[in-house]
TrEMBL record:
SUPFAM superfamilies: Enzyme IIa from lactose specific PTS, IIa-lac. The modification Phosphohistidine is found at H77. PROSITE patterns: PTS_EIIA_TYPE_3. CDD domains: PTS_IIA_lac. Pfam families: PTS_IIA. It comes from the Bacteria. It comes from Enterococcus entomosocium. This is PTS lactose/cellobiose transporter subunit IIA. Keywords: Phosphotransferase system, Sugar transport, Transferase, Transport.
Length: 107
C-alpha cells in the first residue's frame, strides 16, 4: 500500500469515526431536549461523512486508473467504518425526530 492509499484509508476511518461520534452526541443532546445542539452535531456528522466519501472517491478513482489498493484488513475496516457511520447517522436522525415528537406531545 502506497502513501496515498494509506492516507485515503486512514481518512475513511478518521472521518467515519468522527461522524459516528457526532451523531452519538446529537442523540445525547436530543435526549436532553437540546434540539439546537442536536441539529448542529448532525450537521457536523454529515460534513464528516462527506469528507469520508472524498477519501473513498480517491480510492475508487485510483482503482479505475489501474492503481488498486491492496485488500488488507485495514482497507476492509475502513469501508466497514464508513458503512457503519452512514447507518448510524441515518438512525440518529430518526431517534432525534422521535425525541422531538415526544417533546411536542408533552407540551
Amino acid at each position: 500500500m502506497n502513501q496515498e492509499q494509506l492516507e485515503a484509508v486512514m481518512g475513511l476511518i478518521i472521518h467515519s469515526g468522527n461522524a459516528k461520534s457526532d451523531a452519538m452526541e446529537a442523540i445525547s443532546a436530543a435526549k436532553d431536549r437540546d434540539f439546537k445542539q442536536a441539529k448542529e452535531r448532525m450537521k457536523s456528522a454529515e460534513a464528516a461523512i462527506v469528507e469520508a466519501h472524498h477519501a473513498q472517491t480517491t480510492m475508487l478513482t485510483n482503482e479505475a486508473q489501474g492503481i488498486a489498493a491492496d485488500i488488507t484488513l485495514l482497507t476492509i475496516h475502513s469501508q466497514d467504518h464508513l458503512m457503519t457511520a452512514i447507518a448510524f447517522c441515518d438512525l440518529a436522525k430518526e431517534i432525534i425526530a422521535i425525541h422531538q415528537r415526544i417533546e411536542q406531545d408533552e407540551t
